Amino acid sequence: MSAGAGDGTRAVRAGLPEPVKYEPTLPGPVFAAHFHLPGEPVGPYTYGRDSNPTWTLLERAIGELEAPGEPVETVAFASGMAAISAVLFSLLRAGDAVVLPADGYQALPLVGEQLTAYGVEVRTAPTGGDAQLSQLKGARLLWIETPSNPGLDVCDVRRLTGAAHAAGALVAVDNTLATPLGQRPLELGADFSVASDTKGMTGHGDLLLGHVTCRDTALAAQVRRWRKIAGAIPGPMEAWLAHRSLATLQLRIERQCANALALAEALQERDEITGLRYPGLPSDPSYANATRQMRRYGAVVSFVLPDRGHAERFLGALRLVDDATSFGGVRSSAERRGRWGGDAVPEGFIRLSAGVEDPEDLLADVLRALDEAR
Ligand SMILES: *Cc1c(COP(=O)(O)O)cnc(C)c1O
Predict the structure, then answer these.
(1) Closest-lying ligand 1 atom to the alpha carbon of residue 210
(2) Domain final residue pick, 223, 246, 269
(3) 240 lines ligand 1 (CB under 6 A)
(4) Is 291 exposed, middle or buried (0-12, 13-18, 19+ CB in 10 A)?
(5) Which residue, 246, 276, 299, sits at the end of a domain?
(6) Do the domain assignments include residue 131?
(7) Number of structural domains the chain divides into
(8) Which of 127, 154, 199, 208 is the pocket-test mutation for ligand 1 (most atoms within 8 Å of CB)?
(9) Per-residue pLDDT band at 1 (split at 50, 70, 90)
(10) 66: domain CATH number?
């Protein structure tokens, strides 16, 4: 498809094979541990841990969204953490240094501990404020997560990537919150775009999946080799469901971003709320960076209610917003993030993910729940 096509057009056709008479538009999932393979054991399809036709179509689709019109390589994984671990563990050796976010996804510090145990020097820097710049000397990899989860800080990807490359470091961006329709890390200069496709990318809260996209074929080969070794492969059913879900990506993300902005604007007026964050809000500290590199600002809004009890009353009073973790789904969800203990957030901190409900219904439900929680 032409690189100039719109996001909706690209999303509905992404990764589809050429039409074949009597064949479906998107071929069904191929369930196979092994494939018929007489003679020399050469691909494309040999054994189910190495490759699968359903992954191939999904990987092509994701690549078309991450870098329209460019020849990139995508490797799909069983989860976002599998994708993240594949980049970090395939690239870093004992004696290397890596810069990780201090305020990133809650499982990232566990990965950091494991890297340290393997002799990798782990440095950390907060997402906002460019503190990464002073950590780059001698580093092999800079890892950034923007917007960050759950704080929604945004860093200047072009600036950090330029500085990292000048220092001889590669750059990986966790693009989970934005999705490729929100920002394209490779276009901004990054070497890897990595994401949990469990969230907005697939959007129905019914599967876990992840991916890594990069331009460099040698880096992609290392990541693919890691998948083979670790065996963190996606199931064909999940891969197919994900591909099917991508057809509605633009519709979902468009509505979710509009709902998130409407919620953020309404929440701004509430005096019981502090620390409201949404990168698309002109008053937000992330806005300047976000407008420079993001095409859409995401489904997640975060804010702080006065205390734990107040936050729990709010969550309990919601009818259209599920009290559940994760985000980016078609049904709105929210949670008191402090209940997990992994993030440095106040007790009343709420992460709310806007779904595709009608904006007036969603707003009314949230405002009513806030009134009841007072
Ligand atoms: C959820 C999430 C992950 C982990 O993804 P899984 O699919 O749950 O393994 C990684 N990074 C970010 C930013 C996330 O939100």
Answers:
(1) 7
(2) 246
(3) no
(4) middle
(5) 246
(6) yes
(7) 2
(8) 199
(9) low
(10) 3.40.640.10
| Model confidence pLDDT, tens digit, residues 24-72 | 999 999 999 999 999 999 999 999 999 999 999 999 999 999 999 999 9
103 in contact with ligand 1, CB cutoff 6 A? no
| Structural domain of 116 | 7-246
* Centroid of ligand 1 to alpha carbon of 208 (angstroms): 9
310-347: per-residue pLDDT in tens? 999 999 999 999 999 999 999 999 999 999 987 789 99
Q: What is the dihedral of CA 347, 349, 351, 352, to 10 degrees?
A: 110
Same domain, 213 and 270: no
Give per-residue pLDDT as tens, 271-318. Answer: 999 999 999 999 999 999 999 999 999 999 999 999 999 999 999 999
The model scores a pTM over 0.85: yes
> What is the per-residue pLDDT across 234-263, written as a single tens digit (0 to 9) for each?
999 999 999 999 999 999 999 999 999 999
Ligand 1 within 6 A of CB of 80: yes
Percent of the chain with pLDDT over 70: 99
* Residue 213 CB–ligand 1 contact under 6 Å: no
